[in-house]
Amino acid sequence: MSSDPTQSVVRITATRQRWNPGQPWEKQAPRKRRSLGAIVDGPRVITTAEMVADATFIELETTDGLKRANATVIAVDYEANLALLKVNEQEADDFFQELEPLKIAEVPGPGDTLEILQVEDNGNSITTRGPIQSVDVVSNFLPAHFFLTYEVKASMQSAASSFTLPVLFDGALAGLLTSYNSKDQLSDVSSTEILQQFLKDASDGEYEGFPSLGISTASTEDSNFRAYLKLPDEVGGIYISKVRKDGSADKAGIKTGDVITAIDALPIDRLGYFDHEIYGRLFWSHLVRGSKAIGESATLEVLREGEPLTVEVPLERLEISDQLVPSYAFGTPPNYLIKGGLLFQELSQPLLEAFGEEWRSRAPLNLLDAWENPTAYEEDYDRIVFLSGVIATPATVGYESLRNMIVSEVNGTPIRSMSSLVAAFDNPPADGLHSIRFRDEEILIYLDEVTSTAVDGELMQRGISRLHRADH
């Protein structure tokens, strides 16, 4: 790296627009975020996925303010919270002419000192040094997605472009700051190992992502539970409480009720931790989501009803498109249908989160059940389609209070996704009355085709740009 660290970083300004969960045909007001990105070989710029999520425009600026260039995302992993940007070829040579890419650091360990880099509006750099206080597997953007993270003790200063920041170790890029707690003076920093794997995967232009087993687990601390599972006292192990359909574990024959006692010959204790040679105790998921690439295998030692098994699991990524209830939908417009004033949507975790901070207890129980127990619905649905709201129109008289009910059939046709719902309404019965049934509800409602079509025309005249979207 150059003796001047500002020659290896750039300011990033992202204009972001999210889709409106209550009115999925339109976007919310745009907002801007500013951060510092690190230049890596390519030249490319690395930042967090959170920085570019739902971005409609991304601009890079040199720290002296003399050059600007438009950027596009060429690889993004929302689960690992990393994104790689590029400048188009016509602008790249000039923009990066006097800038120097950072090398990737050797892997630091607990106690090593990292340097958090900031740049003020006037171009002066601020370097805040602090030791790695601990290393853990945590979620720093999307809940339930855990990756190796450094916790750095350092007193940060307030400075511009600080939504996310490059973090250095011996002058090389070690990670990215993802959060800062000013009260405790603690920063979460994405680890060098995760950074290295992300860049290696993205180097061929075909980013695949981090693999997963596709399981949910529980501890085996309770003595009665251990006796039920036939676990010897000298064995640790984690209980598999759920196996996702078509995930890596499912395809390899892993079953709900199995107990994983070791991964790649490393014993797993009763809480799910193993001993890492550098970091000490880490949660078991790092052995898959931080130490492996797609296409590699993990060797699981399993107890099934007290009998030992060794299972070789080829590792794949559980694609968001394969989830019954997608856990995120950045940059993807929501599927929906308005018919005569009835608003239907496909269920997603962002829609559940729209019920507020306490959405896990405030969202409707039937929708939460589909989110928590997808296997109970996957035989009947590719996506959960539900009636999310009703606009008062001549076609919906008497239905105004109906909402949050999962659709099972329209005109006798099973509804597996938004595209099947659109197709069902495109084929009205001979009597012109659409019939709509709902899962687990003793309600059958009717919608007049002539009246609802007239209403649809009026809604478009009032400003609804399109009546449906069923693109994915």
Automatic annotation (TrEMBL):
Boundaries of every PDZ domain copy: 196-268
The keyword Acyltransferase appears for this protein: no
UniProt GO MF annotations: serine-type endopeptidase activity
Pfam families xref list: PDZ_2 (PF13180), PDZ_3 (PF17815)
GO BP term, example: proteolysis
Transmembrane segments: none
Keyword terms of this UniProt record: Hydrolase, Protease, Serine protease
Protein's name in the database: PDZ domain-containing protein
Lineage: Bacteria, Pseudomonadati, Verrucomicrobiota, Verrucomicrobiia, Verrucomicrobiales
